[in-house]
Structures are given as structure tokens and as C-alpha cells.
């Protein structure tokens, strides 16, 4: 067998796709998952449970700890779209920033309809040599005999890091950076783009050569050609159908064939469309976007698949491949770059944050403790400490670190977001904390309008309080637009619509989410939400009917009151008619707890205490017919009698707090919980 990964042994791509699964994608709760790093399939990663998880070595090679062992002079170069931190010269820092800006301009020219700037900024750590690189690279590569890397691309939902050696050589030393940058800009197409075309496009662009005046695109991968000429190609019907659960994507030998043939078919179609002035690949993608399945779309766009298979086999066997220089203007405006020196604590904080996402937790914490000792007000160090505490499942400590970071660095959108998200999941909040959470979410949106999570969290925040519901719905829609593949955002949109009593719209949103969902757990989550929604709608309608009957019985009983004629006693007889009551006005609050001390007086006056477990709220209604009663996930056994059936019930109560008092108020709605 050939020496697999001859090029990829020089460079690896790492994805931290684990990060804050519940916090970023399923915001109803927080969980602390042990993170993993997913490597490109050709680097010898080990598969566990459908993912490629890289184990972290318990014993590290001596002499690679990231502690400050010399007075490195770090500086930061900010270009319009990238941030470069380097311990080299300003000239090299500018060159690195320029290279990435030129790379971006290539993709912007090639994909004019796609937003090439990710919502999460890209930070490049450009280090001088192997020693500096080993102080930061994944621990799994530090043992003797491990692969030698020249760079890596670390992707997470909230961070994009590039680590690169400035002394790297070779024909294509940074090809995986180009490969993964392609995936990054195509990420919003993943809900409909088939895997073969996604990977084939990344393979096509990974050998790009970027120069000042032009760019070479499409140079064949010698590794791919070598493999394809010595192995039987997959049938196209198989290649076109491969998904992330397929063994052709996960198993090393089959996966390698899949990558190579995906490259070959993509290369063939791009070159042929260019030479023959056809639009077969564009037509295929348009059909996919219309939700035509991959194989059917291929037949309609490419014609007979057996004939295409023969053409592809002949293409792979040809002695030479076409590719060339594209006169794309890739000049970078270095006058727009901002350069500033970094203090020792600032550069250490950046390196510690990278190490935290790189799974070198012990090294990250050691460096952070040193930073905080030297600079107690370092905002990034507090943020990273919050992240490490979250990973360990210590939510309260994590929230405290983020709360301090908010005070120290008001310009970090992530700090604002995580402080707010953790505060929401913490439980009931007082008015001051609520105001801080709302302000932080709005700050996160303002600081990074392309980052979807704070839109979703603010919508959930408003929905839970039954306030600003129109704005909550607009926020939901913005989150979905920014991240169409996130099923959690669609589920939360349906929840807000249900609160707005737009049940049909909520069902339509969930039905659409089912079409977008790809993973079994996503489908199951949407189906569960649809079942819950239907139960809530059914219970609401039943409760409305029971309230109507109760009102009719009360009115019937009141109609039988004694006749007070002129000859009767001079003593006034109080009318038992329920007093007229407008719904309480003011900001709505919401609390969960147990209903206790339920008291009824007069014809329809209701007083009840809500025991939240931490404090008690005294609530009142002058007319309980005005209260919206609902039941969540269960159906009451009989018609509701508020005076007799509420005692001891778990419920979520919506109310308007009394003036200057958060422990009393007027009842708006009571949602009984199972």
C-alpha cells in the first residue's frame, strides 16, 4: 500500500465540534461534554461512536510546556478580515495577513453568491519554528514517532484558529488550511450540498497557489491520482449517495477512495464546464437546492451515469491534467492593517486560549494562572477560565468567570453571550440580573451581528417572560437565517409562535425543520416537539372549554340570587357578581414553583403563593375568569376548579409584579406542569 498521507503528514485539520452543544444548539439546558478533536480522515485518527476522536496522551514530551521561558516579542496584525498574532517580525506578520487576505479574495471571486466571511473571526497564530509550534500543537502529536505537522486549522462553533509554522517548506505546506477554509465558507450549504461535492470542492482548492498577480487553481493532487490509478473507482451511484454515516466516509481505506474520487469528479466537471462552456455542475447544484435527491439530480444534469463513469475513468488515466493561472486580483491593502505589540501577558492569554480549545487543559490552566497573577484584569484570561470551568461541569464557577470578564472587556461578544446564556440556564433571576442578561445579549448582537446564538437566546429570554413576543419572533428568524442548519433555532421559533397562539405557524415551522434535519437525534427532537405542541394545543382547547363551562355554571348560580325588593331590609345586600378586572399591566415576569395556600373569596377572587424553592411570591387575581389556564404535557382528569384543584400543583405562573416589589403581583396565566 502506498504511503498514505504523504502530504497530510505535514499538516492536520482539527475540528472541535463538541463545544457547548446544548448552549449553542439546544439552548434549553447546559451540559458539560468532554470535548474531542476531529482530524481529517487521512491522518490516522481513531473512530469512536461515529466520530473521529483523538485521544490525549497522559504523558507529554519534556520541554514543550507553554510557560513563558523566554522574552518573546509578540505582535498583532489586524487586517480587514483576519487577526494574526506572531512572535516573528512585523514584516512576516504582514505577509501572513496578506496571504490570508489574498486567499479570501480568491474564494470571494470564485463564490460571489456565498458569504465568505464566517461569523466567528479567524485568528492566526504564526510561530517562528518547530519549538514554538510544539508548545501549542495537540498533545497527541508530541510523542516520539508522531506525525510532523506544519500547521493546523482548529474550528469550533465559537472560535476559528489557525496555527502555522513560518519555517514550513514543501510543495503545498498549507494545503489543509485551504481545504478547511473551503469547508468553512461552504458551511451554510451543508444542509443541501452532498458530501462528495463538499469534499471534492475542498480537495480541488487545497492545492491553490496564491501569488501577487495571479492564482493557480486546480493543480491535481499527486496523492489522489496515484490512488485512483491503482484502485477500482466506486460506482457513481454509490459515490453520489455517501453521507456522514457511510463507511465510505469513515473507514480509512474506503474513506481515502471516497476523497480521491470526489476530487476527480469535481475536477472533471469544473474543467469540462470551463472548456465546453456548459453549466452541468451549476445545474446540478440548482436541482439539489430544490431538494432533488443527489442521484436523480445527477442524471438530470450530467446524463447517463454509466457513460459519466467511463468518462471519469478515462479522465483519471490521462497522462496530464488541465489547470492554470487565474488572473484574480489578490492584492491586499496593507495600508489598512493595524499593527500593535503584545505584552507578555496578552500573548500568553492568546496562547492559553488556543491551548484550551486544543485540549491541552493542564497547560492552558497553568499559563492562565500566570497571566492572572501578572495581570488580574486580563479579560481574555477570565473568558478562557470560564470556558475551562464549563468543560469541567462547574457551571456556577464558569458563570462567575464570565461575569467578571464582562466587566473587564466590554468588547468581547463571546464573553457577553456566555455570561447571559449561563445566567438564563441558572434559573430564576431578579430584575437586576435580568437587565444585565438582556443588555449582554444585545451587546453580543451589536458587537458581532453575524453570530447567531445571541439572537436565539434573546428570543428564548423574551418568550419565557411572555414579553416582546413580536421582537422575539424576529430574533428567531434572524438566528435561523444566519444558521439555517441549526435545528434548535427552528424548534425555539416554533415555541415562541406557540406562546403567541399561532399554532398553525408553529406546526409549519416544525414540519420544515423535519426536512432540514439530517441526524437521527435532530429528527427525534423535532418529532418530540411536534408531539408536545399538539398536546399543548389540545390541552389549551380543553381548558378553554372547561373555563367556558365553569363560567356558565357560575353565571347560572348567580342568576338565582335573592330578590331585594323595596320592602326588604334597609341593609344593603352585596352583589356576588365577579368584579370587572382588566389584565394586569406592566412587564410580565414568569416563575416556576409549587402553588400553596390557595384562597378563594368573593365570587371569583383568587390568592395563591408560589413556592419557587428559594422564595415565595404572593399573587392575586380579582377575577380568576381572566386567568389563562393551560396544562403542559398532560390532560386534567376533570373540569378545573381553581379554588379546589390548584393546591400543591407544580406550575409556571406569569404575572405582573407589584410596583417596586418582585414578591407579589397580579396573575396573568397559570400553566400547570406534570
Compute the average pLDDT: 79
Radius of gyration: 31 Å
Structural class, please?
A: alpha+beta
Q: Biggest β-sheet, characterized?
A: 8 strands, mixed
DSSP, total strands:
19
Detailed description of the structure:
The chain is an alpha+beta fold and 674 residues long. Among the domains are: 465-555, Alpha Horseshoe (Serine Threonine Protein Phosphatase 5, Tetratricopeptide repeat), CATH 1.25.40.10; 588-673, Beta Barrel (OB fold (Dihydrolipoamide Acetyltransferase, E2P)), CATH 2.40.50.140. The protein is built from 24 helices and 19 strands. An eight-stranded mixed sheet has the order 2-1-8-9-7-6-5-13, with helices on both faces. The protein has a five-stranded mixed barrel with strand order 14-15-16-19-18. Strands 10-11-12 form a three-stranded antiparallel sheet. Mean pLDDT is 79; it is low at 1-65 and 564-581.
Task: Tag the structure with descriptive keywords.
about 675 residues, Serine Threonine Protein Phosphatase 5, Tetratricopeptide repeat, eight-stranded mixed sheet, five-stranded mixed barrel, 19 strands, about 45% helix, about 15% strand, disordered N terminus
Amino acid at each position: 500500500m502506498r504511503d498514505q498521507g504523504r502530504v497530510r503528514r505535514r499538516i492536520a485539520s482539527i475540528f472541535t465540534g463538541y463545544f457547548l452543544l446544548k448552549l449553542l444548539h439546544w439552548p434549553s439546558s447546559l451540559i458539560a461534554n468532554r470535548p474531542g478533536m476531529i482530524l481529517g480522515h487521512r491522518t490516522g485518527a481513531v473512530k469512536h461512536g461515529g466520530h473521529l476522536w483523538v485521544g490525549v496522551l497522559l504523558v507529554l514530551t519534556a520541554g514543550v510546556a507553554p510557560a513563558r521561558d523566554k522574552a518573546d516579542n509578540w505582535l498583532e496584525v489586524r487586517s480587514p478580515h483576519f487577526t494574526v498574532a506572531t512572535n516573528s517580525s512585523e514584516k512576516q506578520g504582514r505577509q501572513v495577513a496578506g496571504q490570508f487576505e489574498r486567499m479570501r479574495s480568491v474564494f470571494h471571486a470564485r463564490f460571489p453568491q456565498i458569504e465568505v466571511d464566517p461569523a466567528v473571526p479567524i485568528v492566526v497564530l504564526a510561530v517562528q519554528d518547530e519549538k514554538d509550534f510544539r508548545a501549542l500543537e495537540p498533545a497527541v502529536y508530541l510523542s516520539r514517532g508522531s506525525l510532523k505537522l506544519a500547521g493546523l486549522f482548529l474550528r469550533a462553533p465559537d472560535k476559528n484558529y489557525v496555527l502555522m509554522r513560518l519555517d514550513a517548506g514543501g510543495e503545498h505546506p498549507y494545503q489543509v488550511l485551504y481545504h478547511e477554509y473551503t469547508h468553512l465558507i461552504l458551511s451554510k450549504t451543508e444542509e443541501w450540498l452532498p458530501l462528495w461535492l463538499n469534499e471534492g470542492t475542498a480537495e480541488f482548492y487545497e492545492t491553490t497557489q496564491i501569488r501577487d498577480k495571479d492564482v493557480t487553481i486546480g493543480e491535481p493532487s499527486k496523492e489522489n491520482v496515484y490512488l485512483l490509478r491503482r484502485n477500482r473507482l466506486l460506482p457513481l451511484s454509490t459515490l453520489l449517495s455517501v453521507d456522514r454515516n457511510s463507511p465510505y466516509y469513515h473507514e480509512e481505506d474506503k474513506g481515502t477512495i471516497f476523497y480521491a474520487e470526489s476530487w476527480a469528479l469535481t475536477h472533471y466537471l469544473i474543467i469540462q464546464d470551463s472548456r465546453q462552456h456548459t453549466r452541468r455542475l451549476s445545474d446540478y447544484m440548482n436541482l439539489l437546492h430544490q431538494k432533488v435527491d443527489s442521484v436523480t439530480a445527477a442524471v438530470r444534469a450530467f446524463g447517463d451515469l454509466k457513460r459519466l463513469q467511463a468518462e471519469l475513468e478515462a479522465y483519471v488515466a490521462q497522462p496530464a491534467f488541465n489547470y492554470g493561472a487565474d488572473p484574480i486580483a489578490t492584492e491586499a491593502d496593507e495600508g489598512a492593517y493595524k499593527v500593535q505589540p503584545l505584552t507578555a501577558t496578552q500573548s500568553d492569554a492568546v496562547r492559553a486560549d488556543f491551548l484550551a480549545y486544543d485540549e491541552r487543559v493542564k497547560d492552558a490552566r497553568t499559563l492562565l494562572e500566570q497571566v492572572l497573577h501578572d495581570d488580574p484584569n486580563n479579560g481574555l484570561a477570565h473568558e478562557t477560565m470560564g470556558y475551562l470551568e464549563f468543560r469541567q461541569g462547574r457551571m456556577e464557577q464558569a458563570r462567575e468567570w464570565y461575569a467578571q470578564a464582562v466587566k473587564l472587556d466590554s468588547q468581547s461578544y463571546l464573553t457577553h453571550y456566555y455570561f447571559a446564556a449561563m445566567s438564563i440556564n441558572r434559573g430564576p433571576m431578579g430584575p437586576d440580573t435580568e437587565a444585565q442578561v438582556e443588555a449582554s445579549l444585545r451587546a453580543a448582537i451589536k458587537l458581532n451581528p453575524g453570530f447567531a446564538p445571541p439572537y436565539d437566546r434573546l428570543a428564548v429570554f423574551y418568550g419565557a417572560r411572555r414579553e416582546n413576543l413580536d421582537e422575539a419572533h424576529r430574533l428567531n428568524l434572524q438566528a435561523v437565517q444566519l444558521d439555517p442548519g441549526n435545528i434548535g433555532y427552528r424548534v425555539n421559533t416554533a415555541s415562541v409562535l406557540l406562546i403567541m397562539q399561532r399554532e398553525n405557524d408553529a406546526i409549519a415551522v416544525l414540519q420544515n425543520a423535519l426536512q432540514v434535519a439530517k441526524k437521527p437525534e435532530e429528527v427525534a427532537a423535532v418529532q418530540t416537539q411536534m408531539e408536545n405542541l399538539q398536546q399543548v394545543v389540545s390541552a389549551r382547547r380543553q381548558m378553554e372549554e372547561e373555563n367556558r363551562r365553569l363560567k356558565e355554571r357560575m353565571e347560572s348560580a348567580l342568576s338565582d340570587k335573592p330578590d331585594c325588593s323595596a320592602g326588604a331590609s334597609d341593609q344593603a345586600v352585596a352583589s356576588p357578581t365577579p368584579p370587572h378586572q382588566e389584565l394586569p399591566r406592566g412587564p410580565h415576569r414568569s416563575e416556576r414553583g409549587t402553588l400553596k395556600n390557595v384562597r378563594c373569596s368573593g365570587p371569583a377572587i383568587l390568592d395563591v403563593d408560589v413556592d419557587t424553592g428559594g422564595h415565595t411570591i404572593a399573587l392575586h387575581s380579582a377575577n380568576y375568569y381572566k386567568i389563562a389556564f393551560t396544562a403542559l404535557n398532560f390532560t386534567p382528569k376533570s373540569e378545573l376548579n381553581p379554588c379546589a384543584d390548584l393546591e400543591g400543583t407544580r406550575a409556571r405562573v406569569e404575572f405582573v409584579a407589584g410596583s417596586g416589589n418582585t414578591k407579589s403581583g397580579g396573575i396573568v396565566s397559570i400553566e400547570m406542569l406534570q
